[in-house]
């Protein structure tokens, strides 16, 4: 594909000549004389002059003699360009059902479904049109999988789990396992049956090796459009809103309620039965111990506080530490001077 054709695909404005073939895309730090690269943020503009790249894709015109495609949304253009230049690298699965899959006779499969070897589809399951159930995935009884949804290898969907359309669940993830429901029974622990399920919306992507527990009585819910990174735990009866961005190694205790478009940074923990308002940003390594009721606030630290307040406290604490260190040093110096 020529650079000029790529500009048309991206809906961008071409500055300079586009009469060369685009065979390689690369980050700006790894670009070669054969690459087209991206300037996604202003901080990368200073690297343009030294970059050997053939051309650039950016959110504005650049101070360079090399050709540039100017696009309004560079990250969206990045995704479109990758799909256009590397179509063979995007996974595709031909429809068809392996004779080495185990499918209960009562299961209902839609049109052009893909089921790979080793997959297990239990009694009463309903699989939507063009859905993909890949190798060794296990679906319990009465599981619902929507149209065009992809269930990757080694995913386990327990009984009655529901997954909407156009969603992706990556390898090793377990959805619908029992929540941590126990009660003290003398010196032992009694188990509370977990009889709810998990409902996952449309256009949801769940990373690898996540665990999402079923509800105790009600349901655990993941809203439409939400994206969850790898190795995150969502406990029973959590309700995650729509279009949330949840990164890796996050622990949601039972009953957490997230609003819509909440962003949660990695290695964060949220206490049980708290609510988070819409558009809140929770920075990484945060401990959220109580509800956040103000929409759009950014919080950090342990316990979580508004980020600017947290920074002021850290700065004040550092000043006190520095002052104490200086006091100790002054005392030591005075003692040495006295001894002399």
Which descriptors would you attach to this protein?
3 helices, Udp-n-acetylmuramoylalanyl-d-glutamate--2,6- Diaminopimelate Ligase, Chain: A, domain 1, ten-stranded parallel β-sheet, 340 residues, 16% helix, single chain, alpha/beta, twelve-stranded mixed β-sheet
Indicate the topology:
Elements: H1 3-10, E1 13-15, E2 25-26, E3 36-39, E4 55-58, E5 68-70, H2 74-85, E6 96-97, E7 102-103, E8 108-109, E9 114-115, E10 120-121, E11 126-127, E12 132-133, E13 138-139, E14 144-145, E15 150-151, E16 156-157, E17 162-163, E18 168-169, E19 174-177, E20 182-185, E21 188-191, E22 198-200, E23 205-206, E24 211-213, E25 220-222, E26 227-228, E27 233-234, E28 239-240, E29 245-246, E30 251-252, E31 257-258, E32 263-264, E33 269-270, E34 275-276, E35 281-282, E36 287-288, E37 298-300, E38 305-306, H3 307-339
């Amino acid at each position: 594909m020529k650079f000029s054709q790529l500009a048309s695909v991206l809906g961008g404005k071409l500055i300079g000549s586009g009469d060369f073939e685009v065979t390689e895309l690369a980050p700006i730090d790894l670009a070669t004389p054969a690459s087209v690269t991206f300037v996604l943020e202003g901080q990368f503009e200073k690297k343009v002059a030294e970059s050997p790249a053939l051309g650039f894709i950016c959110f504005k015109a650049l101070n360079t003699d090399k050709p540039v495609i100017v696009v309004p949304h560079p990250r969206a253009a990045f995704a479109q360009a990758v799909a256009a230049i590397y179509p063979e690298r995007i996974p595709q699965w031909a429809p068809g059902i392996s004779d080495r899959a185990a499918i209960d006779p009562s299961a209902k499969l839609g049109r052009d479904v893909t089921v790979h070897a080793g997959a297990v589809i239990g009694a009463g399951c309903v699989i939507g049109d063009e859905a993909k159930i890949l190798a060794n995935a296990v679906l319990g009884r009465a599981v619902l999988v929507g149209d065009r949804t992809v269930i990757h290898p080694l995913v386990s969907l327990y009984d009655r789990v529901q997954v909407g359309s156009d969603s992706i669940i990556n390898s090793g993830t377990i959805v619908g396992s029992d929540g941590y429901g126990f009660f003290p029974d003398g010196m032992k622990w009694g188990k509370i049956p977990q009889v709810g399920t998990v409902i996952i919306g449309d256009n949801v992507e769940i990373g690898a090796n996540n665990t999402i527990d079923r509800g105790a009585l009600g349901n655990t819910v993941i809203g439409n459009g939400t994206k969850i990174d790898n190795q995150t735990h969502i406990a029973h009866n959590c309700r995650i809103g729509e279009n949330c961005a949840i990164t890796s190694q996050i622990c949601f205790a039972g009953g957490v309620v997230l609003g819509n478009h909440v962003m949660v940074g990695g290695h964060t923990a949220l206490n049980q039965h708290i609510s988070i308002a819409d558009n809140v940003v929770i920075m990484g390594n945060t401990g959220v111990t109580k509800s956040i009721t103000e929409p759009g606030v950014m919080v950090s630290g342990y316990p979580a506080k508004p980020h600017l307040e947290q920074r002021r406290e850290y700065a004040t604490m550092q000043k006190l530490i520095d002052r104490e260190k200086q006091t100790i040093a002054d005392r030591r110096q005075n003692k040495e001077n006295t001894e002399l």
